[in-house]
Amino acid sequence: MSIETTETSSTKLQGHQSNLKLLATVDELRQKNWQLTKWVDGHDILLYKYEGEVQAISNVCRHFGGPVGYHKARGGKFTCLWHNWEFSCKDGTCLTHPGLPLRQYELKINNNEIYINLEG
Amino acid sequence: MKTYTMKLECEGEMDCPKEVVMWNYYDHEHLVGTHFTYYKKARVLAERDDWALVYRSGNMPIFGIPISGMGLQFMEGNVMKTFHKDSIGFLLEQETHFFDLPNDRSKVKVIYKINVPKFMKLFEPLFQNMFKSWFKNVWAEDAPMRLRRWKVYKLGFKDFKGIDYINKKLSKPAKISYPKYEFTPPIPVFSDIKQPEGMERPFASSVQLGYND
Fold first, then answer.
1. In terms of CATH architecture, what is A22-117?
2. With an 8 Å Cβ cutoff, is B59 touching chain A?
3. Domain range summary for chain B, segments of one domain joined by +
4. What is the rounded distance in angstroms from the CA atom of residue A6 to the CA atom of residue B12?
5. In terms of pTM, does the model score above 0.95?
6. pLDDT tens sequence across A94-118
7. Domain B3-158+178-198 has what CATH class?
8. What is the rounded CA–CA span in Å between residue B41 and residue B17?
9. Which residues of B touch A64 (CB under 8 A)?
10. Where are the domains of chain A?
C-alpha cells in the first residue's frame, strides 16, 4: 500500500471497520528506517516498505516460530534469525520452503496512522 | 605427567520450562543463526535420539580466539553431557544440569572442566574468565529465543505449521489450550547442516533490529 494513499477517515476506521487496529504511524516507520516489528493482540507483525509500498506480514516463521524481521531486509529478502529461512519482501513467500508462506495483512493508512486488519 | 582440572560453574534462570531450554541446546541450526556473531559454521556429523556429534567453528567472545572442533552431546536424565575436542587438542567436558522451578520457570547450571598439565594451573583464572564471558554472552543470545519459543508455543504454535488463528486470518481466540511442552530429540532439520558442506552463517554483518518483546 502506498503511503500517500488515504483510504478512509479516522471516524470510518473506528466506526465501520472494528477489526482495524492502530499499528504504527508513518513517522514511526520512517524513524525505524522503514522496517519494524510489533506484537498486536497475539499477532507479531512485520511492517515495512518495499518498492514504495507499505506492507505487513506475519513475523512468526512457520518453521520453529523465529523472528523473521530481526535482521534488516537485504536483496528483497528477510532472513529469519534462528535458522536463516528466507522470505520474499514482495509477498511473504518462503523462498526456503515455498509451501510455508507468511501471512500477509491488510493495511489502511489514514493520514499518518497505519491500521492493520487482523482478520484480513 | 601430573595433571590438573580447571573448573568453572555458571548458573542462570529462565522464564520457560526446562524442556524449552533442552530444545534450544539440541537445535544445532541456530548456532549459525541466533549465534551468527560467534559461530561461522556448524555440521551435524551424526545424530540419533538424544545424542549428536557436531562440528563447530567460530570465535570466542573475548579476544576473538578462533575455535573449532567436534563435540558429542547426550542426555543422562536431566543432565546433558558434552565432550568437546578443540583443534588445539584440549578436551572440554561440559555438564549442563536442568532444574524445574515453579510457574513454568527453570534453572540451568553448567559445569565446564578441562584437564591440563599441572603447570598450566596458573592459567585457570584466564580459563574461568573466558568461559564466564562465553556463558554470559551465549546465554544472552539464547534467552530471547527460548522465551519467544515458549511464547508462541502458548499461542498454539506448531512446528512447520505456525499459529492456527494467524494462518486462518482470525483474531486470537479468548482461550488457547496447549499440552505440556515435550522435548523430543532429535530436532528435525531441513538445511545442509548434515551435509558435508555443513551450514554457514549467511552474512558477515547485519543490521540487527532485534526482538520486539
1. 3-layer Sandwich (2.102)
2. no
3. 3-158+178-198
4. 50
5. no
6. 999 999 999 999 999 999 999 999 9
7. alpha beta
8. 29
9. 27, 149, 159
10. 22-117
